DNA sequence: GGTTGGAATGAAACCGGTTGCACAACCGGT
DNA sequence: ACCGGTTGTGCAACCGGTTTCATTCCAACC
C-alpha cells in the first residue's frame, strides 16, 4: 500500500512537499505538483484518512441523527445529505435515536468525539436537551427550529394551514387532523396552523397522537368516522395509507365520500384523482442541511463571520388538481 | 481534552502502561490498572478513536451496502446490524448503492480503505462483480449467496414454496407470483421454489419484474385480475399493500375474493384475518451478519482457523391462521 | 547461592499524514 | 551592487494512541 513517503520518494521531493502538492497545490510550483500527482497516480496512492484525521484534526465523518429509519419521511433526507456529503469527500454515518433519553445523549456525546459535525433530526427531544448538545459541535437541525441554532425545515405548517383553508373554501364544515407524536415540534406547528385556519369557520377535530405507521392510520379510521369529518389532514404518508385503507374497508370511497390529504407519493401511487397532496422534498432538505453544516465545519473557528443561526424554511407546495 | 499522556502523568506511570491498563489490563498489575482507571475517570478521559485507529490499523468503522433505503426490507436489517456493531464499539456507516455499476464499485473501493469490513446487501450485482469486491476485505453477504463467501440470508424461497403448496392444498388452481427485480438473487430462488411447488399441480402466473413500491402493487393489479389467479404471492410488503388497495378499488375483497400473502407487518397493520403471512426477522438478519463480520475482522490474519464461508439460512415462518 | 524465567514497567519507535519554521533562490526597485 | 519581499522546498515536530524491545525485580529451581 503506497504511502505519502513512497510518493515523495518517487517524485524526488520531501514528504512535506508531496503533502502540500496533494492537499494545497497553490503552495507548490505547478511543475512539482504535476510530478507529485503523476507519481501518486502511478503508485496508486490513496491518502490514509485516519492519518489525515489525526494530523488535521478533522475526521472526515459527519453524522445524522434520525429517530427512526422506518418512517419514509427520513430516508430521502438521508439520501440527500449523503449525496451532498460525498460531494465534499465526507462520509455520513447514521445514528438512530430520538436524542430524548439519557442513553441517547450519551451516545451523542460519544459520537461527537468522532465526527466533524451533526445533522440533527430530533423532533421529540426537548429544547433544553437538544440545544446544549447541538451547541457543543457544528450542527444543523432538520425539520425543527430552536432559537440560536441553524436549521433547515420543510414549511409543512403553512401547507397544512393552506389545506385546511382549501377544504373550508370548498365547503367542508367539519375537518379532522390526525396528529403525530405529542411532543414533536412540527406537530405543534401544524396543529397551530390548522387551528388558526379553522378558527370560527369550521369544526376541527384533532386526533392523536399516532405513530407514523400504516397500522395507526387504520386505527384512526374509527375516530374519523365518529367525528363526522368530511375531510382529513394527516401528517404522515404511512398514516394516509392506513386511513384510506381503513375507510375503504368501511365502504367509504376516498376521495368520493371523504377526502384525505396525503403526500404526493401516496396520491401518485394509489392514483387518487381529486385528493389534494403536499410534497415535501426530503432530498433537498437533506442536501441543504448538509451544505449548511459543511459551511460551518469549514469556517475557521472564531472567524467572526456570520454566526448563521438562520432558520431556513423550504416551501411545501400543495396540489389541488388531480395528477395526470 | 484529556489525553493518554495526562492520564499517565496523573497516575504516575508511563504512557505505555496507561495504554495497556486501558486496552489490555491483563498485562498490568491489578493495583496499577485500578490507579490508571481512576485517573482516567477523574480526568474524563475518552480515548481518541482516530489515534487508536492509526496506531492499531483498525478504523472502528464498518459499512453496510444496501441498494436503497426506501424498501422497508432493509431498515430492520440496518437496525440490527447497527445494534450489534455498537455492542462491539464499532460505528456503522451506510452506503446506498447496488454494487452493480462501475461508479458503485469505485465507491466501494474507496470506502474499503476506510472501514474494517463490509456487510453487503447487493441483490442485483453480478457474482463476478460482487465476489472480487467482497473477497478483498472482510465481508459478509446479506440475503444473497455466492460460493466461497460467508453469507446470512432469510430462507424466503422455502417460505414461498410453502405458501404455494399451502394455496394448492387449500384448493386453489391458479396462483400468481408478483416478482421482484429481474436479476435479484432472491427473486430467482423464489421463482424456482414456487415453480417447483406448482409444477403439474396448478397454474402459475409469474408477473414482474416490479420495483418494491406501493405503486407497482397497484399497477400489478390489472395483470393479476387478468390472470384469473385466486391466490397471489408477492415478494415485498409495499407491493402487497398496493395489490390489496388495487384489488379493493376493483371491488374485490381481500382475502374474501382473492387471497394475497403478505408480510406479517402488513397483515397485522391492515388486520387481514385469514390471509397467510410470512415473517422475515430483519433485525436478526442484521445482527447475525454483523456478528459474523466482527468474527472475521477479529480473526488474526492467516490464522488458518475456519475460512468460514458458510451460508447461514434463517428460517422464515409462514402463518396460515389469522392473527389474534 | 547462582541461575532461570516470568511479570511489570518504561523508553522509544511507529502508524501516515499535516504544518510551523528556517532557509535558499529569485524578484523588482533604487 | 544591495535590500526587502515573495516563492518554493525541506527538516522536524506533532497529532494520540499502540507495540516492540530492553530492563528491572523477584520468586522458583537445581
Detailed description of the structure:
- The structure is a homodimer of 324-residue chains.
- Chain A has 324 residues and is an alpha/beta fold.
- The first copy, chain A, folds into three domains: 4-47, 434 Repressor (Amino-terminal Domain), CATH 1.10.260; 61-154 and 283-319, Response regulator (Rossmann fold, 3-Layer(aba) Sandwich); 156-278, Response regulator (Rossmann fold, 3-Layer(aba) Sandwich).
- In chain A, 47% of the residues lie in helices and 15% in strands.
- Chain A contains 13 helices and 13 strands.
- Chain A has helices at residues 4-11, 15-23, 30-43, 49-56, 74-87, 102-112, 127-135, 156-169, 185-198, 214-227, 237-249, 264-270, 282-298; strands spanning 61-66, 91-96, 117-120, 139-142, 151-154, 174-178, 203-207, 231-234, 259-260, 262-263, 277-278, 311-314, 318-319.
- In chain A, the strands form three sheets. A six-stranded parallel sheet of chain A has the order 2-1-3-4-5-12, sandwiched between helices. A four-stranded parallel sheet of chain A has the order 7-6-8-9, sandwiched between helices.
- In chain A, helix 1 packs across helix 3 and helix 10 crosses helix 11.
- Chain A is elongated.
- The mean pLDDT of chain A is 91.
- Chain A binds chain B through residues 46, 48-51, 53-54, 59, 61, 69-70, 72, 75, 78-79, 82, 91-94, 96, 110-111, 113-114, 213-215, 218, 241-242, 244-245, 248-249, 266, 268-271, and chain B through 46, 48-51, 53-54, 59, 61, 69-70, 72, 75, 78-79, 82, 91-94, 96, 110-111, 113-114, 213-215, 218, 241-242, 244-245, 248-249, 266, 268-271.
- Chain A binds a DNA duplex (30 and 30 nucleotides) through helix 2 and helix 4.
Amino acid at each position: 500500500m503506497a504511502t505519502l513517503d513512497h510518493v515523495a520518494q518517487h517524485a524526488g521531493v520531501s514528504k512535506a512537499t508531496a503533502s502540500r502538492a496533494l492537499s494545497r497545490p497553490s503552495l507548490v510550483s505547478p511543475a512539482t505538483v504535476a510530478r507529485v500527482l503523476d507519481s501518486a497516480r502511478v503508485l496508486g496512492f490513496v491518502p490514509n484518512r485516519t492519518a489525515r484525521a489525526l494530523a488535521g484534526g478533522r475526521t472526515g465523518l459527519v453524522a445524522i441523527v434520525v429517530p427512526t429509519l422506518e418512517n419514509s419521511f427520513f430516508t430521502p433526507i438521508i439520501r440527500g445529505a449523503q449525496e451532498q456529503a460525498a460531494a465534499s469527500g465526507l462520509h455520513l454515518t447514521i445514528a438512530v435515536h430520538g436524542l430524548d433519553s439519557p442513553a441517547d445523549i450519551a451516545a451523542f456525546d460519544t459520537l461527537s468525539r468522532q465526527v466533524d459535525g451533526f445533522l440533527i433530526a430530533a423532533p421529540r427531544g426537548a429544547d433544553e436537551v437538544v440545544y446544549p448538545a447541538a451547541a457543543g459541535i457544528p450542527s444543523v437541525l432538520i425539520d425543527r427550529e430552536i432559537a440560536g441554532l441553524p436549521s433547515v425545515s420543510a414549511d409543512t405548517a403553512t401547507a397544512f394551514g393552506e389545506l385546511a383553508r382549501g377544504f373550508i373554501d370548498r365547503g367542508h364544515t367539519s375537518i379532522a387532523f390526525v396528529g403525530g407524536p405529542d411532543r414533536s415540534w412540527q406537530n405543534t406547528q401544524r396543529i397551530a396552523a390548522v387551528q388558526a385556519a379553522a378558527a370560527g369557520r369550521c369544526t376541527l377535530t384533532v386526533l392523536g397522537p399516532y405513530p407514523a405507521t400504516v397500522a395507526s392510520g387504520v386505527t384512526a379510521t374509527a375516530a374519523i368516522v365518529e367525528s363526522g369529518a368530511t375531510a382529513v389532514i394527516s401528517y404522515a404518508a404511512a398514516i394516509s395509507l392506513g386511513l384510506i385503507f381503513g375507510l375503504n374497508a368501511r365502504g367509504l370511497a376516498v376521495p368520493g365520500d371523504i377526502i384525505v390529504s396525503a403526500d404526493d407519493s401516496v396520491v401518485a401511487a394509489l392514483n387518487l384523482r381529486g385528493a389534494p397532496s403536499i410534497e415535501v422534498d426530503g432530498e433537498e432538505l437533506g442536501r441543504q442541511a448538509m451544505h449548511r453544516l459543511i459551511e460551518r465545519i469549514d469556517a475557521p473557528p472564531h472567524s467572526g463571520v456570520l454566526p448563521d443561526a438562520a432558520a431556513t424554511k423550504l416551501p411545501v407546495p400543495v396540489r389541488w388538481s388531480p395528477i395526470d
